[in-house]
Design brief:
The protein has about 240 residues and is of the alpha/beta class. It contains eight helices and ten strands. It has an eight-stranded mixed β-sheet, with helices on both faces. The chain has a two-stranded antiparallel ribbon with strand order 5-7. The termini are close together. The mean pLDDT is about 95.
């Protein structure tokens, strides 16, 4: 039986990435929707979010707290909140994880500094016994690309941190996974990110040559490890 994954995009180059083949192999059809373009307040959107077997809210370069500039954020938060209340599987990546925190009533705010580039996650004891343990295959190296952070939702379990940002990965039960980092990133697609985020990279003084080199070194290893992580999470959520 085919199941549905509803994926909400904020920018076209931040998609499901390496997670998409895992979903398709697990029997999912994938439907992308575009934040700010598709009406998230419509009855159709509400039904889609309620009926999807899995919802994934992807990353983007805006802040959860910028609804004055991007009014669709209000409707997006309403959909995320309703999804959380339903208890059905939900994954948030980067901005998506921040949306889960905000929809849970927690603060989202600028972090201590921009965290852009590859760095190792430090798994908590709970993380070491979770789906995240599969990241040992890539020495826990993942791509980070964010400036904001958040307070953990009530009842959440912290699974991983970095030296700069404590709240990197969390779970709520077996059905909600929040990833501040980009587990889905594919090294061979990094040029799309470098082009799409050129203004942010220039302002932050990021060394593009180093970022390319690190993506070449770790990209394939992360892709394989991330697919194992996600498959394990799907199994724990009863979706694989």
């Amino acid at each position: 039986m085919t199941r549905t994954c509803l994926a909400l995009q904020h920018v076209s180059f931040e998609d499901l990435g390496s997670l998409e083949p895992v979903l398709r192999a697990s029997g999912f059809s994938i439907q992308y929707r575009q934040a700010g373009v598709d009406d998230l307040s419509s009855p159709q959107a509400q039904a889609e979010w309620a009926q999807a077997d899995l919802v994934v809210v992807l990353g983007g370069p805006i802040g959860v707290y910028e609804s004055d500039r991007y009014p669709f954020i209000v409707d997006e938060l309403a959909r995320v909140k309703a999804r959380l209340q339903s208890g059905k599987p939900l994954v948030g990546i980067c901005l998506g994880a921040q949306m889960i925190a905000a929809a849970s009533g927690q603060r989202v705010y600028p972090g201590p500094a921009k965290e852009i580039g590859w760095d190792a996650l430090q798994l908590t004891p709970e993380g070491l016994s979770s789906c995240m343990a599969a990241l040992s295959a890539c020495e826990h190296q993942v791509l980070h690309w964010h400036g904001d952070t958040f307070d953990l939702p009530e009842g959440a379990t912290l699974l991983a941190s970095t030296r700069l940002v404590r709240h990197q990965v969390f779970s709520i039960g077996n059905t909600v996974l929040g990833l501040q980092c980009h587990l889905e990133a594919q090294g061979h697609q990094i040029e799309r990110w470098l082009i799409g985020h050129t203004a942010e990279l220039t302002a932050a003084g990021i060394d593009l040559a180093q970022l390319r080199a690190d993506s070449c070194q770790w990209g394939d290893k992360l892709e394989q490890a991330a697919q194992a992580v996600f498959l394990n999470w799907l199994m724990g959520a009863g979706l694989a």
